[in-house]
Amino acid sequence: MAAAATACALLDAGFDTVILSRGSGARARQAAAVEALPAATTHLLGELGLQAELVSAGAVGVNGFENLHAQTPRVLDGTWVHVDRQRLAAECLLEARRRGARLAPAGARSAIDADAAAVVDATGRAARHSRPVGRDGAEVAAVYAGPGRGRARPGRVTRTPAGWAYRLDHPDLTTVGVVAATPAGRRLTPALAAELEIDASAFTQVATRPAGVQWSSRPVEGRRISVGDAALACSPIGGHGVRFGLVSAIAAGAVVNTWATGDYDTATAYYTDLVAAARRRHLTSLVALEDPEGGSAQAPEETPVLDVERHLVFAAEVHRRPANVGGLIVSREVCVLPDDALVRSAGGFDLLLLRDLLRGGATTREATAGLTASGVPEAAASQLLAWALRHSLIRYASPSGTAREVRTPGPN
Fold this sequence. Notes:
Elements: H1 2-12, E1 18-21, H2 24-29, E2 34-37, H3 39-47, H4 51-56, E3 60-68, E4 74-84, H5 85-98, E5 102-105, H6 109-113, E6 119-121, E7 133-136, E8 140-147, E9 155-160, E10 163-168, E11 173-180, H7 190-196, E12 204-210, E13 213-216, E14 220-221, E15 224-226, E16 232-233, H8 241-259, H9 264-289, E17 311-314, E18 317-325, E19 328-336, E20 342-343, E21 345-346, E22 349-350, H10 352-357, E23 362-363, H11 364-373, H12 378-390, E24 394-396
Parallel strand pairs: 1-5, 3-9, 6-15
Antiparallel strand pairs: 2-4, 3-4, 7-13, 8-11, 8-12, 9-10, 10-11, 13-16, 14-15, 17-23, 17-24, 18-19, 19-20, 21-22
Helix pairs in contact: 1-5, 1-8, 3-8, 8-9, 11-12
């Protein structure tokens, strides 16, 4: 997936792109498995012009996600797209070739490298050109395949005595994953089957895969840049793997484009920081999942309820950092979220305009009106404010006052 996505990003930036392949055998050996993609991930596919490939891959939309992993089980709001990851990757590769990417055998690398503006390592957890790697956890995911369901149910994740498990439906197949320190048995236990509401006798183990977190110690070195699992392989419980693969693909396209302008250091620092911050966020989220109060897989996708009469304040720190602006890495003001993520826009909206809008204090109703007056549709304005609340870019003012509170350190 990351290889095809990066190829599309580079082609869109005007680079002649060659994808080195070890042949179709390795891909054929990978079992079909359903992934649940949250809205943020499908949005990234849209940024790359790959949303049509979701349709070609047979993706289906499913409302809600059942989180039984948390101490208080609940159904998470939102729409998840269920799709066979291998089929989606194949469709994205076809689109990359339609845009002009060429395939070449892996043995041709030495001849191609000599004239390449950059070499991208998209070899997955093998990280063939991105060693050394660091690891956290040694869990193994046992993957099972069973019959599909014409009407896919919401995904479900639950705890097990030795770890956790999930079930994802699709009209073509249903995927069950069981993650633990040691591989699960060839057959699902009746107790787990009951928890996941499936017939254990209809499921067969089709693969075992590493499920611990792995990262490259040098995601950028010289003109080599690592993307997807080669840079950071996530635990499957967070639902972050495909998302990071797409984020890294978009970022790598901008980095290589910036290298071509001669600004190597800014672009390299940007990508190094991006991968490091993603690793920190992911590891922190995994620790939270083991909290006695119970974390929640996919919890960041929950939508807060807007209180139209309460006052909002802009809460994010603002720093000047390298950022991706129109496919080039430049230094600009960005919002630093509590998880170290750097953002400047959401849905095409400049988030610093929220800072200006809330400078004198405003209720949620007034903020919505201000956004609509600037040309944002009312429904989109509500979604933007809900997103900003969820990510702590803004927050409700304390009852004692309505003044805007924002931390804006000096340049660093």
